[in-house]
Amino acid sequence: MTSVRDTPPKVQGLIFIGAVAIILLIRGTTDLGRQDFRGALICLSLGAGLAIVFFRRRMLAFILTGLALIFVGYGVDMIFQPTVLGILLTAAAFLAACLIAVWDMRRHPGQNPNDWAAIFNNNRK
User: Fold this and answer.
1) DSSP secondary-structure letter at 120?
2) Reduced to 3 states, what is the DSSP secondary structure of residue 116?
3) What is the pLDDT of residue 43?
4) pLDDT digits (tens, 9 = 90+) for 46-59
């Protein structure tokens, strides 16, 4: 079993950049709902720019990072303020992450489950 200390710095940086991009994209869509179009444009363009530059060939890693961030963010909020929407969003993020993991394991059958950081590499076989 690998730990966080065994994770390469490149993967740690990509996880951090992915989380920042997801937060910017969520903030941008929230600003659109508030009709703050300038803030929405800035946040959406920065989030999309980070996603395109760093995750151009690693979309699976970007999607799983986003689902994990949504799962953790709403999962913690669900403890203090449980709502039906929060429970459904948490369950949907968890289910989507599990289905994507199963799909990826079928696509790469020789992959070792302990080598989870391999989704951040471009040269997987």
Assistant:
1) G
2) helix
3) 93
4) 999 999 888 888 88
